[in-house]
Amino acid sequence: MDFLAPLTSLNLEPIFQLTFVALIMLAGPFIIFLLAFRGGDL
């Protein structure tokens, strides 16, 4: 189990925070594109 040793010292919180921020930033244009593709409004 020595190959897991670097993973335990790695702080995963900033990685998760950056991942969720990226998902939120990508969700806005995706929703706008989806609304434009369907031809509807809000």
Describe the 3D structure:
- There is one protein chain.
- By secondary structure, the chain is an all-alpha fold.
- Helix content is 74%, strand content 0%.
- The protein has two helices and no strands.
- The protein is rod-shaped, with a radius of gyration of 18 Å.
- The chain starts with a helix and ends with a helix.
- The model has no long low-confidence stretch (mean pLDDT 82).
Strand content: under 5%
Rg: 18 Å
- Return residue spans where pLDDT drops below 50 for at least 5 consecutive residues: none
> How many H/I helices?
2
The coarse silhouette is rod-shaped
What's the assembly state of these chains?
single chain
- Given helix and strand content, the structural type is mainly alpha
Distance between the termini: 53 Å
Major sheet description: none
Elements, N to C (H/E): HH
Helix fraction?
over 70%
Mean pLDDT: 82
Give the tally of β-strands: 0
Task: Furnish the topology, listing elements before pairings.
Elements (H helix, E strand, L loop, with lengths): L4 H5 L3 H26 L4
Care to give the gist of this entry?
With 42 residues, the chain is mainly alpha-helical. The chain has 2 helices and no strands.
Q: What are its keywords?
A:
rod-shaped; mainly alpha
